[in-house]
Amino acid sequence: MINAQEILKSVYGYDTFRDGQEEIIDSVISGNRTLGIMPTGGGKSLTYQIPAILSSGLTMVVSPLISLMKNQVDELVAAGVSATMINSSLDFEAVKERIYDIRQGIYKIFFVAPERLEDTSFYDFIQTLDLRLVVIDEVHVLSQWGHDFRPSYLTAVDLIENLSNTPNVMALTATATEKVQHDLEHILAIDKTVTTGFARANLAIKIEKGLSDADKKKYIVSYVKNHANDVGIIYAGTRKKVDELSEMLNQSGITAGRYHAGMSDSAREAAQNGFLYDDFQVIVATNAFGMGINKTNVRYVLHLTMPGSIEAYYQEIGRAGRDGLPSESVLLYSARDIQLQRFFIDNSENQEATYRHNELKKLQEMTAFAATQMCLQRYIIQYFGEDMADCGVCTNCTDERALYDVTVDAQKVLSNIVRMSQQRDDAYSRTQVVNVLRGKLAENMLWTGFDKLSTYGLMRDWSLKKLSSFVDYLVADGYLDVAGEYNGLSVSQKGIQVLRGKLTVTMREIKVKETPEKSRASK
Ligand code: ADP
């Protein structure tokens, strides 16, 4: 009997499995409901394709994006595996034909969008098949704790659960915090979870701070010019920014594609193909781009705007260096990006309280990431509940500036927060905390009596930007906790150690670019 190893060689031409692949495949073949969590580029596709090829029956892959399906089908067909897809890009006749062919046993694997399962005749049809395995790709969207939560998928899961031909189920994702993982294990009644390390040794994570919007764009143009032989992706927060930046690049003599949800289907497909076949040097895109795009030689990912969560960010930068060669990501961070993400949350269709709460929390965590001075990749890996040694190549690992002891400054901030909370029995945002420390309580906050606190104006010689960054740093490195709609600050257990003089706080000088401060109501 042929085994997984032989398929790996004969179909894909690889000699050895990558970390986690064999374990997932074995688990699925043994009939376990299996959850596979591997980083982007880790090789998830093989983990369902090989069991599908080895199975005597059929495999159905439920996949959220048409572009994703198309890539996968093309790849399978190129590898000599009969595969097809059924989705809204096909007309009625084509769907009928493919259904007929599936019934005839022509295909080993077929891909569908989750909504398709809600079509009763299709649902009845798949129950007549010898369906052995259902694969749910990009499964993190099922969890309300994951980014990109799509509650509608839960309907698909229910339908899968109720299939009379009871296929095994496996689910795959590149991003899952412990919370998401537990949630998915529960929703899908998973027997076995295989997680490989999230660390990407070949990826150098960089953050550039304090650039104006105009300087960010200049930075990108010169970056792309300096990497003339490399292909990259540039993520921008809005469609307008995508249009502007791609135009600017093209005017600078760079062939740049663009991609966002406001473009027609055909324009998007052309952009995607142009990128896959190296017609463009770079593609400028919103976060609508990239899921399932299997281009291994992307050398860099730049972020003109900060994404709204660490999960989304790590998935996006993970598209660089899937071939394992050294690659780089640069986040061009500015505090204004937080407001943009906040705007997205405030204007999201989903205004359910827990959803909002989660999204705000994720944004807060992303902001903290931008402020940390620890190894950036390690910070992310710890966020996902694992640990690693410092990467040695990120902005923070390569920062050679001296460390200062800032314990006394940290104590000032922390004790002020304690006092503010005691005075009004509430938690206050960074803005309020910074205003009190700088002795600049707004007129409409005078009722709080914060101007009478002994800490009022204690850090009046700090600029607004610098003190705000310092507070962010204290959040990032766990001295402060943040909670609630208004991101109220409170002192953590670690912070209490600092207040008690049991823990020292060190950091590198904060780099901020000062702009003249607007005059504001102050006392
Ligand atoms: P993911 O879906 O996890 O992002 P893919 O399945 O697209 O990753 O795999 C990324 C790349 O790695 C692909 O080009 C794939 O062919 C390659 N690959 C997968 N498994 C192996 C392996 N065992 N040995 C070598 N290359 C592999």
Automatic annotation (TrEMBL):
The protein's enzyme class: isomerase
GO cellular component: bacterial nucleoid; cytoplasm; replisome
EC number: 5.6.2.4
Keywords linked to the UniProt accession: ATP-binding, DNA damage, DNA recombination, DNA repair, DNA-binding, Helicase, Hydrolase, Isomerase, Metal-binding, Nucleotide-binding, Zinc
Catalytic activity reported: Couples ATP hydrolysis with the unwinding of duplex DNA by translocating in the 3'-5' direction
Gene Ontology biological process: DNA recombination; DNA repair; DNA replication; SOS response
Every Helicase ATP-binding domain range: 25-194
Matching SUPFAM superfamilies: HRDC-like, P-loop containing nucleoside triphosphate hydrolases, Winged helix' DNA-binding domain
Family: Belongs to the helicase family. RecQ subfamily.
Annotated protein name in UniProt: DNA helicase RecQ
Name of the gene this protein is made from: recQ1
